[in-house]
Write a structure and sequence with these properties.
Radius of gyration: 25 Å
Strand order of the largest sheet: 2-1-5-4-3-6-7
Largest sheet: 7 strands, antiparallel
Number of helices: 15
Helix content: 25-40%
Structural class: alpha+beta
Shape: globular
Strand content: 15-25%
Distance between the termini: 73 Å
Number of strands: 19
Amino acid sequence: MSTPSSAKRANHPLSRIEYQVMWNRLISVVEEQAQTLVRTAFGTATREAGDLSAGVYDTKGRMLAQAVTGTPGHVNSMAMSTGYVLDKVPITKMNEGDAFIVNDPWQGTGHLNDIVIVTPTFRRGKPVGLFACTLHVVDIGGRGIIGEAKQVYEEGIYLPITKIVDRGEMNEWLIDIIKANVREPIQVIGDIYSEIASNEVGGKRLVAMMDEFGLEHLDDLAKHILDHSREASLEAINRLPHGTYHNSMMVDGINGKPMELKAKLTIGPEGIDVDFAGSAGVVQLGINVPLCYTEAYTSFGVKCIVAPHVPNNAASLATIRVTAPEGCILNAKHPAPVAGRSIIGQMLPDVVFGCLQQAMPEGVPAEGTSCLWNVRLMGGMGRVDADPEKLKGATPYNVTGFHSGGTGARPKLDGLSATAFPSGVRNVPVEITETNAPVLVWSKEYRQDSGGAGEFRGGLGQVMEIETAEDMPFAISTSFDRVVYPPRGRAGGKNGTTGRVETRSGRTLPPKAQSTIAVGDRLIVSMPGGGGYGDPHKRPAGKVADDVARGLVSVEAAREHYGVAVDADGVLDAAETARLRTKVAAE
């Protein structure tokens, strides 16, 4: 297919159409890159939950496009990793067939479990771009996501920017070092090979695209994408009233010491600035957040509300600027422990939503569970707090099931139940967990009444009951929030229900620690529900009756929170409902 030259294309009547076709093709390229990773990955986090990112960059390291499949925490922070790689190894010194690995939390990964692979792409012997991808490995050594680590050195193997493939040859010495430092070497090394393959596929598809459109470089296309993305972002931002807005939110923190997250959001003609000055300081547990991860989820939260349809790339992200003072929990410096950075980091969209609600009174959802409630189970010697004699013959395993509470209700819609937001990862089927580890999931169901009442109801959390499948104790590593402070409702909506972790025998387990469950006992994980939106008594009685019939809302909650009289089958008592709602209106 022949195309106009770059100089001529600017005035060509089809140039914008051509660029749009090329843009759509570029999205297809990175989506195939991501799907390659999903289909070849060993770990359930990638294969089942979609906890990954994939993107294409120009030779200057600017992200041009990201795959639809992926999470904002990975994509938005991974963009920085590519820049760090280019700072250490200029693209002019890279060779065809090279690939670079890094998991430095302060160079775009956020914690050691996220591994980034960056690969240059060559066409006719010249570098034309780079592909990068990220995934979360099940284990990286160290003390685990929430252990007793006081510094990042204790959290696992730390990989600075290193060449893992040199002109097509694997660095087997590095592979051996990684194998020797992780508990699940087959899964971890398998995932790394998947990342390398993913970038290779992306590179091949990009070269094929450039051949088809007769592109010698990506400079003109990059300029078109980035210029238009910046213009569209600023246009959306400037539709909002300029000014400065404040919000704060309490989170559970650790050891009974809650933390406050504070944000000052300023909307101006050149974009949005978010400052987290005044937020809690760093702590001696791995819930600290490197600034790259703070930037990733803050910018995602802003984009969700202000400019959701503008592509996510270097230019659109540049219109949202994020700062936090050094020593703040949202700008933890090396060597702070950061393994559980998602617990706090994924709360940040809710924090900025509270600011944006003041500028967009009817355009922002209620708070949700936000942080993931992943069920990390383990068994075997050294992984369970039990007499070693009682663990003889136990199966050694580490398995992570990705699970979620409910999201906040939206201004015109109910919240989503058992859905990860802002992360976007999928729930892992219990059958996968049971296949990968000797555990039995006795139940997994919606948690009745957990969604906050409102004209639009908060999304429900879920309840899981789990037991060992062999005559051995097992352990859970918890990294949960919203156990003390619930997701708040908005515009008159009620708060969601807090979560809890306990055993069937009645023991309450800490939300950020490792706990052992004895043989014969069961683990019960009850996940939070999202906040409600709007006055609950404005919710149509028929919707409440339907919620009761489906088991989402109890008969008692329907009467107490919604003023609706209904039986367990959802049959409405219209007269009694009218009386209840008239009484509330009078009061």
